[in-house]
Amino acid sequence: MIEDKNQERISLSDLGEFGLIDHLTKNFVMKQKSTIKGVGDDAAVLEFKNKKIVVSTDLLIEGVHFDLSYMPLKHLGYKAVVVNVSDIFAMNATATQITVSIAVSNRFPLEALEALYAGIETAASIYNVDVIGGDTTSSTKGLLISITAIGTIEDNSEVYRNGAKPNDLLVVTGDLGGAYMGLQILEREKEVFKVNPNSQPDLEPYTYIIERQLKPEARQDIIKLLKDLDVKPSSMIDISDGLSSEIIHLCKQSQVGCDLYEEKIPLDPAVISTCEEFNIDSTTVALNGGEDYELLFTVSQEDYLKIKANPNFTIIGFIKEKEAGVHLVTRADSRIPITAQGWKNFNA
Amino acid sequence: MIEDKNQERISLSDLGEFGLIDHLTKNFVMKQKSTIKGVGDDAAVLEFKNKKIVVSTDLLIEGVHFDLSYMPLKHLGYKAVVVNVSDIFAMNATATQITVSIAVSNRFPLEALEALYAGIETAASIYNVDVIGGDTTSSTKGLLISITAIGTIEDNSEVYRNGAKPNDLLVVTGDLGGAYMGLQILEREKEVFKVNPNSQPDLEPYTYIIERQLKPEARQDIIKLLKDLDVKPSSMIDISDGLSSEIIHLCKQSQVGCDLYEEKIPLDPAVISTCEEFNIDSTTVALNGGEDYELLFTVSQEDYLKIKANPNFTIIGFIKEKEAGVHLVTRADSRIPITAQGWKNFNA
User: Would you say B141 and B109 are in contact if contact means Cβ atoms under 8 Å apart?
Assistant: First the structure.
């Protein structure tokens, strides 16, 4: 993004608010036909013809949602976009535009924000969303990112959290717990680094789980796959806070119960081995870890044949009447009530 | 908003993220036909048929944009909505929905957030916008509000910043400088209070300007009035950062110059008298004060008769060729180049 060799000498206060947003977004290209006007006016102008639109918004705060001591800014920008478009996909919709607002303290040089926006630009390009606006301002402490994502949806294809029915199958994409275990590795290495800044950790065995934490992907591919398979889920949610908390959301809003089978929960071998290394139960990690950005959905049993052999999907449970409650059926065949223990950062 | 008498004992950590957003938004009513689904899923769903939409977003940060020592939380909630819908009106559009995200430290009790949301609800009701979503999270320091506003626009009625033409008239609504002088009064009283907490200031003479600061209004009425008068401005912007900075935006984006006449700048008598009291030049205050949320626009001379006698409008300048530059024509008839000295909080 750097065109002018002298730019490294420009401070945020030299640029000011308007100069900064112009500078950071000047290379962003609008690709969506629905974007009539992007950054640069009081508001962006969009045109979706007869399509419905979906809107979602998320805040990411330094010290709460991310730690810059091991999260490179480019990755952070990328992840901030992923987190938001994931919510759009969880509606069975197509992401089209985002707005990006940042608040930043003067301790950040311009290069840091350029790195952040390079990550945003990369993700916007990969997920095919236009960055149509935003706000930049100073903060009294740390970095904060607020993103609003907009998407479009075909008629009658929206999928809410409240449509699960008894006898539906509970399905999850990908595997779970990786992002959380990646975070454990990063936290451990941070502590090691504090004691011995010259240590050269071998992170190679943890590549997959560290990438799940630092550079997660949203399951845009699944929305296309579901369409190709002619499967419309009865309910859907993305896994940002942990499987248990998302199952409780689906069941509460759909007014149903659920049996989740411990033995079916998909885990990557790297998650299992790292859990053993840390002496943590891998089911607990999958249930409460969060940040995997996989999709959790329910389908009617009629769709069983369409999804059963697909490696992207794992059937992990069975929807029941509300009165049956929400339970984990363990490998030992005991039934344990599931409670939300997902990310609850007001306790932090 | 309080239904349960025991609620005052509930802390933010008891409620958790999901409980909090449910609690704060449970009484919000969706009134817009375009709102298909509001708070409570991964994303809101909206349907605008064939209309174009406009999207704008703003961040408000404690210690940068507001000071809770004199800004009541209900007023802050109200103002946060106003600031955002003002950007929608500046496109000549109708505001329809907002998302509201807040980050808050544990020092805020639930009652404080209820007061904030009561202000948001009041403004949403007055400006007829639905609160369709948001995010609540903890912050490591202070309070932060991020709002995204959505609106609709009739075909061909969008007004950008870049349409001003030489010979157009420059028009402003209402009067300027009030919000800034209100802030000066509040800052002064804060200092007095520090020295003598028992002082009983007589703020009655400053009612208008304090209200301009604490409870500004966005000019929704002007959008309707312009339509009734059959006037489509050639360019428009809202005055959030100060007249000089907004004029420079319009001129830069329209590639024109401008003469602004000092004697024409509309000032309320309370602004003039408070400027005298503080020994500040009232023109400087109008040029650089900001936060008045009036609309600044240009019209072709053909529209002169439609607007000249309307008490809502003041013609304050004249658009010129780009080469003529952007100048203030003083009462003494000298020409001073206008530079942006609006709110530039990276210097703070």
Answer: no
